[in-house]
Structures are given as C-alpha cells and as structure tokens.
Amino acid sequence: MAANEDELRQQLVEVMQAMQASGLNRGTSGNASARIGDGLLVTPSGIAPGKLTPDSMVRLDAAGEAAPGALRPSSEWRMHAGILARRPDIHAVVHCHARHATILACAGMAIPPLHYMVGVSGRATVPVAPYATFGTAELADSVVDALQGGYACLMANHGLIAVAPTLRHALLVAEEMEEQAAVYCGTLAIGGPKLLSDAQMAEIFAQFGGYGQERRR
Which of 54, 86, 110, 163 has its CA 20 to 30 A from that of 32? Predict the structure, then answer.
C-alpha cells in the first residue's frame, strides 16, 4: 500500500535523521524526496536534521511550485524532480555526502564488482555521473543517464545518490553503497581488489531474486 502524505513527511524526517546519525551526512548537507501525486515532497534547504518536522517538508507540484508560505525547498529539488520524472519505477530519492563514496566521486572512480553486495545497486558496477553544477537540471540529466535503470550512482566531485520504490529502501541502498565504497577504498590501500566476473555477478543477481523475507511470503 502506498504511503499517504503524512506518512511520507514523517519518513522523510526519519531518513534525514538516520543519515545524520550514521554519518552519511553532516550538518545540513544531503536531501531526500518522495513522489506524491504528480509532484513530490522534498526536504527544505538549510535546516539541520534534528530540527526537521513533518511540516518542514516542501510539497512541489509538477511545475516545481510550492504553496504560499512553504519553506524554501532543497537547492537540489530540480535533480529530485528530474529523476522522478524520468524514472516512473522509483518513488524515492536519497542524496548524501557519505565520506568514502564522496572520496571516490571526487577521484572519478566507480565502485567495481568487488563484493556481491555491490549488486544491491541493481548493477554490477556503481558508475560515476559526469560533473554538473548542483541544483541544475543538467545534474538531474547526468544522474539519470548514469543510473541506467539502477538504484545508485556516484556524482562526480559531489557525493552519492540512491533511488528506490520507497524511502526506506533508498536509505538501505545508500547505506550499503557507502559500505562498499569504504571496502573499495580499503582494498586500494593494499594493492586493489580481485573483482567478481560478469558470470559471477549474473549468478548473484539471480540469487537476489529469492533473497529476503518479503519474497517468501
């Protein structure tokens, strides 16, 4: 069942606070959004996660317009709106400046298939979207092109983005991609990883099809 607006507003607060608590974000960096109707709910600009409330979330219509008196939306709202518009299969977007993912993004290095959990991204490799200025439609286009139907990508000289059918799923993807980025950084310090083959990753994706409790009900 799809979440209603009140539930989505609360989930956005919880996601932002969870990212702060886990170190995926610091200060007022990062943002999140959820599809609602033909528009979206997005986190506001410049408010620390600990001070967010459900009423802080900004509802934007299909044209990107907010109701009179609403808080100013995240400077990345165009990216969120652009991704949701071009990915009808997903309903939530999470963006963070997680340390290891951002290190790789600043080096222009994709996360390769060094561990089977890279497959949580929906692809064998987590790519790097070419650089575009934050807050622009160009950034949204760059990210969507890099995602290619997957659930995560790095953003050159910027950070990490994760998308999914739900906010909680998108948060889990972001957490796992930061873990894989950290593992990759660690392997680079000791000579680099031994990568999984295309055939091994294909088998992993087949296994993922029956993994977890939801698929057994």
Answer: 110
